[in-house]
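Input C-alpha cells:
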C-alpha cells in the first residue's frame, strides 16, 4: 500500500506521464486551431503592418549586429524598466482614447451602479455577479468617484497590472532566472491587451487568481512558520475572493489542492506531519466556508440593493447553453429563462430538459465532435474574444476619432493589422508552452493540471469564445516562462537536428 501511494505523484509515475501526455496533445490541438483562425487571413491588412515589420527587422539588425546588444545586456534592468514604463503609458492612453459603453452583462452591471432598482432586477437574476457589482461600487465610493466608463476601466486596468506584478513575485520565488522573460512577455501583453476597457470579472478576478498562486508559492518555498502561515492565509483568502467574483477562477485552487493531497500521500505519517497538513486544510476550509456564508448573508440583507432569492439562473443553465449551438450564449434559452420562467427551480427543470434532449440527439460520437469544435472556438482567438461571441463592444456605426480607435475598434483602419499581431503573439505563447514541456517540477505540473481543468470547464459550461480564457492567463504566463529554459534547449536541439539532416542530404 505504501508503494502504491509513492506512485501517486504529479512528478513521477503514471500520473506524471498521463498529465504531460494529455496536456501536450491538448496544447498542440489548441495551436493547430490558432493557425486556422480567421485572424490570420491576409485580407484587409494595411501597408502600415509591413512598415511596422520592417522597422522591427531593422531594429533587430541594429541591435544584434552592433555593440548595442552588449550594452542592453549590461544595462538590461534599465531597458526593462523603460519598456514597462512605455507599456503603462500606452495602457493609459488606450483607456482614455477607447473607453466606450459596452453591451451584455458589462453594460448591465455598469447601469446598476447608477440605479439600485436596476441592480436589484439584474442581480436577482444573475446573483453570480453580485460580488463583482459591490467590488466596483465600493471602490468607486471609497474614492468618491462617479461610475463613468473611464473610472471603472481604470479599476479594470489596476486589476490587470496588479495581477502581472503578483506573477513576478511568484516566479521569483519559484525560479529566479525566469523573472526577466516573464516581465518581457507581460510587457508585450500590456501593449496588446484591449480587454482592459471591458470592466468585467474576466479581468477583475485576475489579481486574486495570481494571489492564489503566490500564496501557494510562499507556502512551499519559504522556511519560517510565519511566512508559511502568511502564504496559507493569502492562498485561502484569494481563493475565497476569486470564487465569489468568478467561481470558475478557483480551478487553480482545485489543482493546488490535488497536488497538496498527492504530496501528503508521499510523506511519513507522523503525528506532526498529519497535524500540519490537517490544520492547513482546516484553516483553508474554515476561511472559505465562513467567507461564502457571510457574503451570502450580506447579499440578501444589505441596505443598498434588494436581491430576491430563487430568481437566479441555476448552474445547469450554463451547462445547457454550453452544449447547445456553438456552446456559447443561447438567445432562445436566455429569452425563456429570463422572460417566461420566474423561479430558479423552473429554470433548472427547463435546463435539465435541454441537456437530456441534446445528449440524446448527439450521442457519444456527436458530443465528441461537438467538443472538438467548441475547443477550437474556446482557444483559437488571440484577441481573447474582442468583438467575438458577445453583445456590442463599441458602436461601429460612428467613425473612429484617433489612432487608438483605428487600431482597436472593429471599424478602425488598422484593426485587421491588430488582429493579426495578437494572433501571432498567442501562437508564440502556446508554442513556448509546448516546447517547454520538458520542464518538470511540482509547480509546473500543478499549472498544467489547472490549465487542463480550465479548458475542461469551458467545454462543459457556457463558452464558445476565448474571452473565458482570460481568467486563466496567470497559469499560461507563468507556465510559459518557468519552462522558458527548456523551450530554448528544445529549439536548439530541433535546429541542430535540421542542420544535421540537411548536411547528410547534401
Amino acid at each position: 500500500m505504501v508503494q502504491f501511494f509513492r506512485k501517486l505523484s504529479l512528478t513521477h509515475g503514471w500520473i506524471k506521464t498521463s498529465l504531460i501526455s494529455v496536456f501536450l496533445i491538448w496544447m498542440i490541438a489548441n495551436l493547430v486551431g490558432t493557425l486556422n483562425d480567421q485572424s490570420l487571413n491576409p485580407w484587409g491588412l494595411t501597408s502600415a503592418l509591413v512598415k511596422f515589420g520592417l522597422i522591427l527587422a531593422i531594429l533587430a539588425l541594429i541591435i544584434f549586429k552592433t555593440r548595442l546588444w552588449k550594452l542592453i545586456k549590461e544595462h538590461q534592468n534599465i531597458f526593462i524598466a523603460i519598456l514597462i514604463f512605455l507599456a503603462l503609458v500606452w495602457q493609459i492612453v488606450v483607456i482614455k482614447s477607447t473607453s466606450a459603453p459596452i453591451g451584455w452583462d458589462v453594460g448591465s452591471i455598469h447601469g446598476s451602479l447608477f440605479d439600485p432598482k436596476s441592480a436589484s432586477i439584474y442581480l436577482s437574476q444573475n446573483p453570480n455577479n453580485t460580488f463583482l457589482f459591490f467590488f466596483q461600487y465600493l471602490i468607486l465610493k471609497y474614492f468618491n468617484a462617479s461610475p463613468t466608463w473611464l473610472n471603472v476601466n481604470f479599476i479594470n486596468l489596476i486589476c490587470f497590472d496588479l495581477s502581472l506584478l503578483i506573477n513576478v513575485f511568484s516566479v521569483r520565488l519559484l525560479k529566479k532566472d525566469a523573472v526577466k522573460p516573464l516581465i518581457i512577455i507581460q510587457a508585450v501583453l500590456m501593449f496588446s491587451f484591449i480587454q482592459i476597457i471591458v470592466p468585467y470579472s474576466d479581468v477583475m478576478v485576475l489579481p486574486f487568481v495570481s494571489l492564489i498562486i503566490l500564496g501557494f508559492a510562499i507556502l512551499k518555498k519559504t522556511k519560517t512558520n510565519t511566512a508559511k502561515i502568511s502564504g496559507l492565509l493569502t492562498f485561502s483568502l484569494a481563493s475565497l475572493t476569486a470564487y465569489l467574483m468568478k467561481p470558475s477562477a478557483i480551478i487553480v485552487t482545485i489543482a493546488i489542492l490535488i497536488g497538496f493531497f498527492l504530496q501528503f500521500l508521499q510523506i511519513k505519517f507522523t503525528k506532526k506531519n498529519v497535524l500540519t497538513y490537517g490544520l492547513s486544510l482546516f484553516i483553508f476550509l474554515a476561511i472559505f466556508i465562513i467567507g461564502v456564508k457571510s457574503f451570502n448573508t450580506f447579499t440578501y440583507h444589505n441596505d443598498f440593493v434588494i436581491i430576491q432569492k430563487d430568481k437566479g439562473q441555476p448552474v445547469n443553465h450554463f451547462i445547457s447553453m454550453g452544449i447547445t449551438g456553438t456552446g456559447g450564449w443561447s438567445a432562445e434559452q436566455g429569452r425563456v429563462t429570463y422572460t417566461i420562467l420566474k423561479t430558479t427551480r423552473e429554470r433548472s427543470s427547463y435546463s435539465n430538459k435541454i441537456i437530456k434532449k441534446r445528449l440524446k440527439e448527439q450521442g457519444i460520437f456527436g458530443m465528441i465532435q461537438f467538443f472538438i469544435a467548441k475547443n477550437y472556438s474556446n482557444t483559437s482567438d488571440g484577441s481573447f474574444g474582442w468583438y467575438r461571441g458577445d453583445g456590442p463592444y463599441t458602436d461601429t456605426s460612428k467613425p473612429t476619432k484617433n489612432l487608438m480607435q483605428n487600431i482597436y475598434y472593429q471599424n478602425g483602419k488598422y484593426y485587421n493589422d491588430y488582429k493579426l499581431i495578437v494572433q501571432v503573439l498567442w501562437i508564440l505563447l502556446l508554442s513556448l508552452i509546448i516546447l517547454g514541456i520538458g520542464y518538470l517540477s511540482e509547480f509546473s505540473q500543478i499549472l498544467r493540471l489547472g490549465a487542463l481543468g480550465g479548458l475542461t470547464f469551458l467545454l462543459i459550461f457556457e463558452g464558445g469564445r476565448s474571452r473565458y480564457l482570460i481568467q486563466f492567463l496567470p497559469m499560461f504566463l507563468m507556465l510559459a516562462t518557468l519552462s522558458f529554459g527548456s523551450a530554448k534547449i528544445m529549439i536548439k536541439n530541433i535546429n541542430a537536428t535540421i542542420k544535421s539532416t540537411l548536411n547528410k542530404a547534401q
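The mean pLDDT is 91. The first helix runs from residue 2 to 6.
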